[in-house]
């Protein structure tokens, strides 16, 4: 028997049971940028009966009773390192590859399928934004979080509080999330047309994987790393 309720936030549900992200992905229920919404609110946004979806989540848990590794057990430094080593490393490698794919497919097939040029424009904008975003996290935010965790009191940060910088990062996450929704719509849920060549199909597969990784990436920051860092800053600020 589980303790899931429709008033649980979707971010907390996936935080405690990471494997449930598969069901959220399939239902296209946002658990990363929308992680602060309750299950009831998130389902209503997608036109899904929350009780039915809750039953699906509970059935999945009952069928996979093995304990899951819990990222919330990691220290802030360990969690920041994990995000860099897994998700940042993936983006540093995959963004240049995807840029080449979307550009090639748009160039070759753009006249037959005009949406490919829109896909190219949107993805190139995402890639440019993410490149800057990753740099800010790796060079500014994550070092600040590590410094805060290692200190007895709140260090004096040249760019203000962690909370303010995190708020900016979350706004950028929302912009990327909205762009990912556009990509899914423009690609018919990453479904290739019958006439698609192998490069076209490879592009769609890569975009789908990119979306899934970004959902996990943003979830780990918005629903685990950032709230814990803000809470620690507030606690140490009272000393």
TrEMBL record:
**What is the protein named?**
Iron-sulfur cluster repair di-iron protein
InterPro entries per the record? Answer: Hemerythrin-like, RIC_family, ScdA-like_N_sf
Span of domain Hemerythrin-like = 87-229
> What keywords appear on the UniProt entry?
Cytoplasm, Iron, Metal-binding
NCBIfam families in the record:
FeS_repair_RIC
Q: Name one GO cellular component term.
A: cytoplasm
Query: Pfam families recorded for this chain?
Result: Hemerythrin (PF01814), ScdA_N (PF04405)
> Subcellular location, in the record's words?
Cytoplasm
From which residue to which does any coiled coil extend? none
Q: Does the keyword Nucleotide-binding apply?
A: no
The molecular function terms of the Gene Ontology recorded here are: metal ion binding
Provide the organism lineage as a comma list. Answer: Bacteria, Bacillati, Cyanobacteriota, Cyanophyceae, Pleurocapsales
Protein's UniProt keywords contain ATP-binding: no
């Amino acid at each position: 028997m589980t303790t899931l309720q429709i008033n649980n936030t979707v971010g907390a549900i996936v935080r405690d049971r990471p494997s449930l992200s598969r069901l959220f992905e399939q239902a296209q229920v946002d658990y990363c940028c929308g992680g602060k919404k309750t299950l009831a609110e998130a389902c209503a946004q997608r036109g899904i009966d929350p009780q039915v979806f809750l039953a699906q989540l509970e059935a999945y848990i009952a069928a996979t009773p093995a304990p899951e590794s819990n990222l919330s057990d990691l220290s802030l430094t360990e969690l920041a390192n994990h995000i860099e080593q897994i998700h940042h490393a993936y983006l540093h490698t995959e963004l240049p590859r995807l840029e080449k794919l979307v550009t090639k497919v748009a160039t070759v097939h753009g006249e037959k399928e005009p949406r490919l040029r829109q896909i190219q424009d949107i993805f190139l904008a995402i890639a440019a934004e993410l490149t800057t975003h990753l740099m800010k996290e790796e060079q500014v935010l994550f070092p600040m979080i590590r410094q805060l965790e290692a200190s007895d009191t709140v260090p004096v940060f040249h760019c203000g509080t962690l909370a303010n910088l995190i708020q900016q990062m979350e706004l950028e996450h929302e912009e990327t999330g909205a762009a990912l929704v556009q990509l899914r719509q423009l690609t018919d849920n990453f479904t290739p047309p019958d006439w698609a060549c192998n490069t076209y199909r490879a592009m769609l597969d890569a975009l789908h994987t990119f979306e899934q990784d970004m959902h996990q990436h943003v979830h780990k920051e918005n629903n685990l790393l950032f709230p814990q860092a803000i809470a620690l800053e507030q606690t140490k600020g009272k000393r």
